[in-house]
Amino acid sequence: MKLVTFQRGPDAAEETGLLTPGGVLPTKEAGLPYDSMNDLIARITPDEWSALRAARGPGLPLGEVRLLAPIPRPRQDVLCLGLNYAEHAREAGQYSQEAFTADKTWPVFFSKRVTYAPGPGAVIPAHEDLTDRLDYEAELAVILGRDAKNVPEKDAADYIFGYTILNDVSARDLQTRHKQWYFGKSLDGFTPMGPCLLTADSVPFPPRLAISTTVNGELRQDAGTGDLIHGIPEIIATLSRGMTLAAGTIIATGTPKGVAMGMKTPRFLKKGDVVVCRIEAIGELPNTVG
């Protein structure tokens, strides 16, 4: 199933819905009384799951709704993996060995502040007063469905609610200047997500999906999520040791090679550029820099 957050108009309330071949079926029509995806994830019951799977109807035509990020307002910072594809780790090290050298034995974790996550079609702010090295990173994001603490790798799949596409937009000059990644990853508008939340039961675990990015139609990233150095079971097991991960936690699993900073002559994003991140089975996340 594909779940979405949407609006019926620019000033309309946000709603949750089920993406169908004919459009968007509001979840309230399936008897789910939740106003936000955060609430739905934390409180959905087995009976409501069954009702959602059985829901039928054309719903609202896609042309009559505006899709938002599946979770527009995450309750906590997004947790992220750095340098989690081997080829990306190499290209990052060539850009700045000081900032991007890591021991691959252990995952590299950082967090990303998100006040509001843009959805498909939304603008990525250029922040030209702060950066001239704006970059993209297509990532598979994992959303947890229940609180997780001290989770064994063999049980990690039981804690996953679903997946979405996340573009980990980065200001490379801020990222390297401050000797840490938080500020350069956390400017307003730097966490586009969407177009939907693909429920975990929709794909085999661990998901091995094609992932790519185009900029103005040019293919930049092209890989598979099966290439992760540290896989999803290890990520969840490691992060949950001694730290509770609440239901609704978003974990961005890392990006493959092909980012702008990895080019021999880096071509960073500029106003007007159209970035489209795609992941098989989930869809595509288009955004324009503005």
Overview of the structural elements:
This protein is α+β, with helices and mostly antiparallel strands. It has 2 domains: 2-68, no CATH class; 78-289, Alpha-Beta Complex (Fumarylacetoacetate hydrolase, domain 2). It is built from 7 helices and 17 strands. It has helices at residues 37-43, 46-54, 86-95, 97-100, 172-177, 182-185, 232-239, and strands at 2-7, 15-20, 23-26, 66-68, 78-82, 108-112, 123-124, 134-135, 138-144, 160-167, 170-171, 193-199, 210-215, 218-224, 250-252, 274-279, 283-289. Strands 1, 2, 3, 4, 5, 6, 9, 10, 12 and 15 form a 10-stranded mixed sheet that branches. Strands 7-17-16-13-14 form a 5-stranded mixed sheet, with no helix packed on it. Strand 1 and strand 2 form a beta hairpin. The longest helix has 10 residues, at 86-95. The radius of gyration is 18 Å and the shape is globular. The mean pLDDT is 94.
Quick summary of this structure?
The chain has 290 residues and is α+β, with helices and mostly antiparallel strands. It has seven helices and 17 strands. It folds into two domains: 2-68, no CATH class; 78-289, Fumarylacetoacetase-like, C-terminal domain (Fumarylacetoacetate hydrolase, domain 2, Alpha-Beta Complex), CATH 3.90.850.10.
